[in-house]
Amino acid sequence: MIRERERQVMNGAVVLAAGVAGLFATVAWFIYAIKTRQPAHAVGIVLLLVASLVALAGLFTVAPNQARVLQLFGAYVGTVRTPGLRWANPLYTKHKVSTRVRNFESAKLKVNDIDGNPIEIAAVAVWRVVDTAEAVFEVDDYNNYVHVQSESALRNLATSYAYDGHDDQESLRGSTGKIAEHLKQEIQERLSKAGVEVMEARISHLAYAPEIAAAMLQRQQAGAIIAARQRIVEGAVGMVEMALDMLSAKKVVELDNERRAQMVSNLLVVLCGERGTQPVVNAGTIYQ
Question: Collapsing DSSP states into helix, strand and coil, what is residue 268?
């Protein structure tokens, strides 16, 4: 495996000044040789011209958050990360690699969750190149590699969890923080060989597939209704128990078991009913 080696090269401004000065000197020398009719200077003029052109040919620029991978006849020489005008051997090939932070948003993938329910899922990954040598030499096209492996990791993640969890079970919809961390680790494991660091990964789209969306919506609504009813009943039972205890403690009224059962029934109807109850005034005694 090829690892990045940072290489220090010459400041290009100095070489640029020397190369331009060499070109002016070549022109001046050529004019002088013509005026003095001294053909012996031709060799020196040619050598100076070639040296100036070689010096200028080795110049290249490095932008901020960018690197240049240097190769000599196919062999890796090093990576230049220092921004500005630089100079290196003109025989080096200089491959430009961006080290900026980039986003990748996957397409909406249709997969089955761990319960076998078809869902649609998409994710956003924030990444950057941290090892230019691995990015250039270990994979054919690191941009395409990031896209393919990110979608593969997302598919694998979706099949490991349920869309909705039950009894505190981790799920795609309910455990967003843990799911995001798992997705980040899953993508990072696949991209580490390409010299890429995954900074963040999160699900950007999550929904049931259209063919089961309506049925799943009904199930979610039923679950919400049952949960709400359960809370209402628990609260109503507590209120009834408190009312009976207070009546007994303050001796407001003495009730036998039958009347206590009737009062409990009436209170539960009032407290648990979906609509407001209509009171009935008893003009007689409670036993009529």
Answer: helix
Q: 83 is in which domain, residue-wise?
A: 10-97
Question: What sections of 250-275 are H helices per DSSP?
Answer: 257-272
Is there a domain that residue 1 lies in? no
In a domain, 285, yes or no: no
The residue to which tokens 């022109």 are assigned: 27
Closest CA to 68 of 127, 5, 128: 5
Instruction: Assess if residue 46 is contained within a domain.
Output: yes
- The SS3 of residue 246 is helix
CA separation for the pair 143, 48 (Å, rounded): 44
What CATH number does the domain containing 196 carry? Answer: 3.30.479.30
Asked whether the beta carbons of 277 and 265 are under 8 A apart, the reply is no
Say which range, 44-58, 79-93, 128-142, 212-226, has the weakest mean pLDDT. 212-226
Predicted pLDDT at 48: 84
Residue 43 identity (one-letter amino acid)? V
User: Which string of DSSP letters, residue by residue, matches 170-236?
Assistant: -BTTT-HHHHHHHHHHHHHHHHGGGTEEEEEEEEEEEEE-HHHHHHHHHHHHHHHHHHHHHHHHHHH
pLDDT at 126 over 90: yes
How far apart are alpha carbons 1 and 6 in whole angstroms?
16
pTM of the model: 0.67
Selection from 106, 104, 107, 78 nearest residue 93 by Cα: 78
Q: How far is Cα 237 from Cα 264, in angstroms, rounded to an integer?
A: 9
Query: Count of domains in the chain?
Result: 3
